[in-house]
Amino acid sequence: MPQCLNSWTDAAGAAQGKNVPTDPADPRLLGAVAIVLALLVAAIRRHRNRRMLRSLRQRGERLKMALWATGEHYWEYDVGSRVVRLLLVEPDAHGLSDVMHEREVPVEELIHPEDIAGVERAITDCIQGHTRSVVADARVLLDEGEPVWTRARGRVVRRSPQGAALRLAGTARDVSRSRQAERERRIAAQVLHSMDEAVSVVDANFNFISVNRAFTRITGYTAEETLGRSAALLDSDQHDAAFYRHMRATLQRQGQWKGEMWQRRKDGEEFLCRLVCSAVAGASPGEAQYVTVLSDVTREKRAEQELLYLANFDTLTNLPNRAMLSERLSRAIVRARRHGGRIGLLFLDLDRFKDVNDSLGHAAGDRILRAAARRLQQTLGAEHTVARLGGDEFTVVLEDLESAAQAERTAREIIMAFEAPLEIDGHQEIAISPSIGISLYPEHGQVPTELIKRADTAMYQAKAAGRRTFMRYDDAMDVATRTRATLSGALRKVLDRGELRLAYQPRMSLADSRITGVEALLRWSSDEHGEVAPADFIPLAEESGLILEIGEWVLREACLMLGRWQQHGLDPSLAVSVNVSALQLQRGDFPQVVRQVLQDTGVAPGSLELELTESMLMANAGQTAARLQAFRDLGVPLAIDDFGTGYSSLAYLKRLPLSTVKIDKTFVDDVSTDPDDAAITSTIITMAHSLGLKVIAEGVETDAQVRFLASHGCDEIQGFWLAAPMDGHACLSFIRNWQPRPARAAAGAP
Ligand code: C2E
Ligand code: MG
Ligand code: MG
Question: Does 748 score more than 80 pLDDT?
Answer without folding.
Answer: no
